[in-house]
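Bumping with the actual sequence this time:
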Amino acid sequence: MSDATVTTDTAHPSIVAREAAHFGTMAKDWWDPCGSSAMLHRLNPVRLRYIREQTDRHWGVDPASFTPLAGKRALDVGCGAGLLAEPLKRLGASVTAIDAAAENIAVARDHAAAGGLVIDYRAGGIEAVAGETFDLVTCLEVIEHVANPVAFVTGLAGALADGGLLILSTPNRTPVSRLAMITLAEGTGRIPRGTHDWNRFITPDELATMLTNAGLTVRDTRGITFSPTTGFALSSSLALNHLVTATRA
């Protein structure tokens, strides 16, 4: 699953140049719910529901609180134009967000400023926060696009503060995900062609091994399913996509 020969530069070896370029072309309409990132807009409420559930449980927060992340430092890795970073900020966190595509960061900064949100946006890979630690690290639909997933998970673990929470999501490498995400979603234009490489999808067992080897413990694994009539939902089925929560071992 390594693709280190096409990284952008030696300072950010986690980045695959063609992946950054592909997502950079989507920057201009990232916030358009009917644009090229429409599927992410539909997926985001489910991801936020899971994050809220896991953070409330981990820190013993009142589920009715409007700012459950107050006093927490959050890092969103592979933030795109800020679809997750902005809600994390509104939940009270001090947010740093990084993305491999400078075009996405430019759009993210403008959108946050227009909404009066202060977010520390940085262009680059996980290397952009080397030496820093965060209470919450999120990395959603990103690991399948990096040069070396094992080294990338080690970088994520290094960014996690003691007592912190790491939440990842990624498609599972199954016939179901190939059909749904490649054949149907990309084949019909619901997702831009070339967004995914099925061979780079990561199974729950593979991800769990990476996390364990990085000194972390998996606390929860949940699936995401999709229905044309009801949309995305959390599920016990991991066949399409899986969310994982981990802490220090």
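The tokens above came from a reply further down the thread. The longest strand covers residues 160-171.
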